[in-house]
Amino acid sequence: MTLNFQPLLEQWPYLLGGAWISLQIAVLAFAFGMLIGLLCAAVLRYGPRFARRIVSAYVIFATNTPQLVQIYFLFFALPEVGVTLSPFTAVLIGATFNAGAYLCEIQRAGFDSVRQMEIEAAEVLGFSTPQIIRHVILPHVLKVMFPPLSNQFIVMTLGTSMASIFGVEELTGRTYNLSSQTYLSVEAFSIAAVLYIAITLIATLVLASAGRYLFRAKIKAF
Amino acid sequence: MPQLEIVDLKASYGSQKVLEHINLSVEKGEIVSLIGPSGSGKSTLLRVLMGLLPPEQGTVRLDGKSVNYANKAEVRELRSSIAIVFQQYNLFQNMTVLENVMITPTRIKGWPKAQVEADAIRLLTRVGLAHRLKAYPDELSGGQQQRVAIARALALKPEVLLLDEVTAALDPELVTEVLDTIRELASEGITMFIVSHEMSFVREVSSKVVFMADGLVVESGSPQQIFDNPQEPRARDFVGKILRH
């Protein structure tokens, strides 16, 4: 087998553009998912019983059905009730819906692991509540949550390839296009694999550095 | 003027009274030990002084100024004057030894870093941990962690130090190193409240011993009086029991 990367490498702006769209879906879904997850984790901990039930049902549903099914469902169900979305938006909502449930579980476990004694120690040293959150709770929580969070982000980034099924021209979609134009399928998909690895590695490092510098969290990225 | 004055202090957990009619007056540099059976209110008294449990009634005066425990800002301010060390040390696990000692003066008080660092290293040298500045708490023994906790409590240069059963969670062979540290501090003139079950230590370092039971001060006096010649039957009973072994 001879490999011929040349015609594909000439298309690098097209592929990088696809990777950029993949990254957008992953980052946006992760960011919105974190917010939903934080809200759900707060409800599970402090909310009234019926609200806790609803959140639990959401988490169970979203973590026990395939993400692809969830996106298909949104993709076909929303137009039925009069909401027409672009493929990008539909995929983004689907990915966010799925991520919110996983990120809720990760954040709930993270906040449950905060040591009450350390908070009391900070209180008697004269820390205010925001200072306790900033210097004691967040560094600990981020450290505990970092491995499952970065793992979730990687799963989500790779999951964005599902968007190609719905006509979103992200990395997998564009790779597929190139492969059918050039018949250089093996080469095309190896380039895509390398780009996916690059995205996830860079994102993991960026997340770890942010946690370390902002909150002095003892995070080991790899 | 006494440095710390407690007048008719009363506190409860819900409907359960835990402290009643507490009156104590402490001069600067005094070492006051609180002894008594479990549940007698010794640790609770320290928690009230720290503002962790609001008093129901009564007054605490520090340097003649009465403390308003309902005012959050005032309580935070008070916590630079009175420091406490707990049984479980409660160090910040995500910070090194040096960072544990430095965080309050630098991040909370905004004191200049170079000066704070020099002070922190001096404190840690005094508790015998100059060689572990960069270690994390989980790399230290219990006795070492407790000594870091003492250094951390002293970082804001408090006037009064409260020690709440600081050796109770330690293995017997580690108790000595912590007691040595406290003994040294005692000789340096900082006012201390000690809750401890190490009776021979209490007897040796205290200038005043307070015997408590059921949330009341039953008897107080010099170590000689309380240990050798207690007047109250409950104090006599307690001292008799602990000195018999």
Automatic annotation (TrEMBL), chain A:
CDD domains: TM_PBP2. Residues 19-207 form the ABC transmembrane type-1 domain. The keyword Membrane applies. InterPro entries: AA_ABC_transptr_permease_3TM, ArtM/GltK/GlnP/TcyL/YhdX-like, MetI-like, MetI-like_sf. It comes from the Bacteria. The chain crosses the membrane at residues 20-44, 56-78, 84-104, 149-168, 188-215. It is a multi-pass membrane protein. GO terms for molecular function: L-cystine transmembrane transporter activity. SUPFAM superfamilies: MetI-like. It is found in: Cell inner membrane; Cell membrane. Keywords: Amino-acid transport, Cell membrane, Membrane, Transmembrane, Transmembrane helix, Transport. Pfam families: BPD_transp_1 (PF00528). GO terms for cellular component: ATP-binding cassette (ABC) transporter complex. PANTHER family: L-CYSTINE TRANSPORT SYSTEM PERMEASE PROTEIN TCYL (PTHR30614:SF0), MEMBRANE COMPONENT OF AMINO ACID ABC TRANSPORTER (PTHR30614). NCBIfam families: HEQRo_perm_3TM. Belongs to the binding-protein-dependent transport system permease family. HisMQ subfamily. This is Amino acid ABC transporter membrane protein 1, PAAT family. It comes from Pseudomonas kuykendallii.
Automatic annotation (TrEMBL), chain B:
It is found in: Cell inner membrane. InterPro entries: AAA+_ATPase, ABC_ATPase_HisP-typ, ABC_transporter-like_ATP-bd, ABC_transporter-like_CS, MetN_ABC_transporter-like, P-loop_NTPase. Its main location: membrane. Pfam families: ABC_tran. One of its GO terms (molecular function) is ATP binding. SMART domains: AAA. It comes from the Bacteria. Residues 4-239 form the ABC transporter domain. GO terms for cellular component: plasma membrane. It is a peripheral membrane protein. Keywords: Amino-acid transport, ATP-binding, Cell inner membrane, Cell membrane, Membrane, Nucleotide-binding, Transport. PROSITE patterns: ABC_TRANSPORTER_1, ABC_TRANSPORTER_2. Belongs to the ABC transporter superfamily. This is Amino acid ABC transporter ATP-binding protein, PAAT family.
